[in-house]
Amino acid sequence: MKLTKLDNDDIIRKGDLMFQNSKIFILGMARSGYEAAKFLATQGNQIFVTDLKDQSEDQKKELLDLGVSFEVLEHPEDVLDKSYSCLIKNPGIRKDHPCVLKAKELGIPVINEMEMAYHFLPQVTIVGITGSNGKTTTTTLLYEMIKRDGKRVHLGGNIGYPLSSLLGEIETGDILVLEISDHQLVDFKDFKTNISIMTNLSEVHLDFHGTYDIYKQVKKKIFEHHTDQDLAIINSGDSDVIDLTSDIPSKKITFSALKEADIFISENMICYQNENVISLDEIKLKGNHNYENFMCACVVALKLGVSMDSIKEVAHNFGGVEHRLEYVRTIDGVSYYNDSKATNIESTIIAVNSFKNPIHLILGGLDRGHAFEPLNPYLGHVKEIYCYGETKDRIADWADTKKIPVHVFDTLKEATICASNQAENDEIVLLSPACASWDQYPRFEDRGDEFKNIVNNI
Fold first, then answer.
1. Which residues are CB-contacts of 117 (< 8 A; sequence separation ≥ 6)?
2. With bands split at pLDDT 50, 70 and 90, how would you rate the model's confidence at 108?
3. pTM reported for the whole predicted model
């Protein structure tokens, strides 16, 4: 991407111009901090980036060449002072981090990379997608539909493309399709969408937020600053979503695979406003959860003027998102699926419900203290369990109570090889960990890539 300095006139949402010719503190590098630092360096700012871990030499050199300072610090709060105009934190950093608390004591605004980038956008249409599950599939489906129709569209957010990395490409009148997580929403201040989708809600990320009620209120921020001119796409089959959105001013369109709504399923057809849109047989993705994802994308695409021909072409050809129930290969009659993006119990429930054949289920990862008992009603096709990582002992204890054979390992590789040896013809080896990856992998994508590499070398 070509980095260019934007003129003041290009900044539609100026706020207090804290992002130009200022001193800015970036807490946590990762992808979002790296991209934020690169962009902000073009705006005449003095940028300081810190992380607990050292970063790649190439990235550090690139930042240094742009005038950005980087330091590995265990106590970054010791460096933060009133001279900084704002603190941009990585979404994964908790609100009770000492540096965040100090910033608030000093009256320094605490935001994230996406909120910062919002202030540099020209006039565009922003579609924000959130929810406990289905965000990535819905986001990707919608992006593909709009792109297939020949419109100018950009894909970003939690899906892996920080918004600040796209700023040099976005033009007035473009459409932004953004996956937005609760970890990003929590630090939004001015960010506003034109269209917001809430796929569903369930009790996830409670280790980060503390309670389900707090988590839901954070999710509700996807509709913040909406008026009756903005659009909300909500799941009428999810009582928590309905309750949470009862008082938002947005125009509402409801969807559900299980009950009548504005867009729903009837007699093997997706119907919108009681008119047939597309047969389920024409949609490559299968399962009610995927049909709901498709409904969200379809109705927004129609509102944005996308043709049915483009929508149907994507429906016919889109086979899913990498690391989300991704088919890897079949070896000696055993099929392998990579569902590394299943970082919570609800995602794993969806995964095991997608198969009728016996499943060899690989679970494990970061221990957030979450229970595995919610999986109990859905274990009918699970033949054996293979667990690894921080949660391996708790998973093993739980599996024993369900009388399911369980194998305990330290690493994903050991678990995968054992599952491969145990699985028989017409059975499934499924990596659907129900845990975050951070005990052993920086990202769930890295975990999924390793699983695929192991399978492809069996």
1. 36, 39, 162, 163, 164, 166, 167
2. very high
3. 0.82
Copy the structure tokens of residue 14: 């100026």
Cα separation, 236 vs 243, in Å, equals 10
Residue with tokens 């705006």: 43
Annotate the chain with three-state secondary structure: CCCCCCCHHHCCCCCCCCCCCCEEEEECCHHHHHHHHHHHHHHCCEEEEEECCCCCHHHHHHHHHCCCEEEECCCHHHCCCCCCCEEEECCCCCCCCHHHHHHHHCCCCEECHHHHHHCCCCCCEEEEEECCCCHHHHHHHHHHHHHHCCCCEEEEECCCECHHHHCCCCCCCCEEEEECCHHHHCCCCCCCCCEEEECCCCCCCHHHHCCHHHHHHHHHHHHCCCCCCCEEEEECCCHHHHHHCCCCCCEEEEEECCCCCCEEEECCEEEECCEEEEEHHHCCCCCHHHHHHHHHHHHHHHHCCCCHHHHHHHHHHCCCCCCCCEEEEEECCEEEEECCCCCCHHHHHHHHCCCCCCEEEEEECCCCCCCCHHHHHHCCCEEEEEEECCCHHHHHHHHHHCCCCEEECCCHHHHHHHHHHHCCCCCEEEECCCCCCCCCCCCHHHHHHHHHHHHHCC
The CA angle 5-123-85, to the nearest 5 degrees, is 50
Q: Are 149 and 158 in contact (CB under 8 A)?
A: no
**Could you identify the residue written with the tokens 């994308």?**
297
Structure tokens of 193?
């969408």
Q: How far apart are CA 21 and CA 86, in angstroms?
A: 12
276-331 confidence digits (pLDDT tens)? 999 999 999 888 989 999 999 999 999 999 999 999 999 999 988 889 889 899 99
**The two structure tokens encoding residue 324:** 């989300």
